[in-house]
Amino acid sequence: MAIERQLAAAKAYVDALSTGNHALAKVASVHLAQDIVVTVGQRTFEGYDDALARITGVWPQTPVYRKTAWPAPVHAGNHVTVDAIMAPVGAGPTEVHLKFRFNDADEITAVEQQNVIGTPLVETDELPDFVKYRVNDALANDTPLTVVYVDEDGRPHLSLRGSVQVYSNTQLSLWVRQGTGGIATGIGKNPAIELLYRDNESRSTLIFRGNARVDSDAVVRRAIYDATPEVEQNHEAWESGVAVIVDLTEVGGATPDGRVRMKVEG
Fold first, then answer.
1. pTM of the model
2. Which of 94, 247, 111, 256 shows the shortest CA–CA distance to 169?
């Protein structure tokens, strides 16, 4: 029956699109018309070769598609639809809607794909709560923040830091070893610093930019040390450590709970 063939064609297309599997793309290829037109948002791909390329191999959103249980295609009059709700991720669509049209041979002649970004964007001058708890739980989540700083000789350095915590609505803190070289020395000459949070499982990425400084005030020093995770306290002793505060200027990124664009003036 025509309806069964069309449903099978749509399913083959979705199976290839959602996995990046080359063998499944080959299965789907027999269902594509030579004059097929695929529309993805504002982009249009015309012809068999371009359409097949779009469902062959791994594309930027393929890892998001793979996390989703795609529903079976539904016949709706003169077309077939597939409406999928994505598993929660940071960078990626929250919904994908597909509409398939066919010729008299039940080959796919048109695919209309709409990716819906439903994760809210928070534009702010303070750290949102969903950013704060990711920073504070980063080490326990096995996603310690990467710190980028410049040493006293002008050379950039990358460093994983499990001691990073939120200090205030516009500041981060970390506990570092005092000594020759390292962050404490480098920021004395060049305070510019960046931090990266990345959780591959949820495709969450947060980038922090600001200026760092050592704070020697006894009360501040004790507060930052006490907020540092226990394993980091046992790694960096009180006597040999210093408290560093990062005054944030910009934060950007995306998590399953929201996207953030933060800018601190002044």
1. 0.83
2. 247
Q: For the domain made up of 121-263, give the CATH fold.
A: Pnp Oxidase; Chain A (2.30.110)
Site of tokens 């970004």: 117
pLDDT tens digits, 85-108: 998 888 889 999 999 999 999 999
- Quote the tokens at residue 105: 């041979």
Residue with structure tokens 């959103």?
A: 61
From residue 47, how far is each of 21, 24, 58 by CA, in Å? 21, 19, 20
Pick the CATH number of 2-116 from 3.10.450.50, 3.20.20.210, 3.90.1570.10, 3.40.50.2000: 3.10.450.50
Per-residue pLDDT, 237: 67
Burial class (CB in 10 A: 0-12, 13-18, 19+), 178: middle
Q: How many CB atoms lie within 10 A of CB 72?
A: 9
- What does the alpha-carbon distance between residue 37 and residue 113 come to, in Å, rounded to a whole number? 11
Amino acid at 152: E
Domain definitions of the chain by residue range: 2-116, 121-263
Alpha helices for 19-144 (secondary structure H): 22-29, 48-54, 62-66, 129-136
pLDDT tens, position by position, 182-205: 888 889 889 999 999 999 988 899
